Amino acid sequence: MDALVIYESMYGNTKKIAEAVAEGLATRMRAEVVEVGSAPPQIGKEIALLVVGGPTHAFSMSRASTRQPAAHAVARRLRRLGVRSVAPAESFYVTDIRGALVEGELERARQWGESLAASFPVPAS
Ligand SMILES: Cc1cc2nc3c(=O)[nH]c(=O)nc-3n(C[C@H](O)[C@H](O)[C@H](O)COP(=O)(O)O)c2cc1C
């Protein structure tokens, strides 16, 4: 069983987070990371776990209350498409619009990916 991480990134921060999440997943299952423009139009049956992520763009000043809803909105749209969610949405933080990532976020993303794979109810192949 494989995992696929699909990301969108304007300034490169989400790309780094996506790669760190894939690194964490790869400790327990095969994991591939692709930019959304290169993502397959259909998710094959070999993909058991799909992780999607992108920057928060709400066209307003960022504050704690504007961060969470963006990730939750993605989760809601995926649910409407019939995707079963196996983990709640997670947010990773930058220090400014272009970055850099807040210190420790790459390691937190790697650990999040690892714990996601560990909690996933499919044995690694
Ligand atoms: C047009 C625009 C709108 C944004 N709106 C928000 C926002 O509402 N809340 C927030 O926390 N960050 C906001 N940001 C900051 C982005 O979240 C930040 O640029 C992003 O995390 C960087 O990721 P990337 O390097 O992958 O593009 C905004 C950035 C842009 C360019």
TrEMBL record:
Quote the protein name from its UniProt record: Flavorubredoxin
Lineage of the organism? Bacteria, Bacillati, Actinomycetota, Actinomycetes, Streptosporangiales
Please list the residue ranges annotated as the Flavodoxin-like domain. Answer: 3-125
Q: Which GO terms describe its molecular function?
A: electron transfer activity; FMN binding
Instruction: Give the PROSITE patterns listed for this entry.
Output: FLAVODOXIN, FLAVODOXIN_LIKE
InterPro entries annotated for this entry? Flavodoxin/NO_synth, Flavodoxin_CS, Flavoprotein-like_sf
Q: Which organism is it from?
A: Nonomuraea rubra
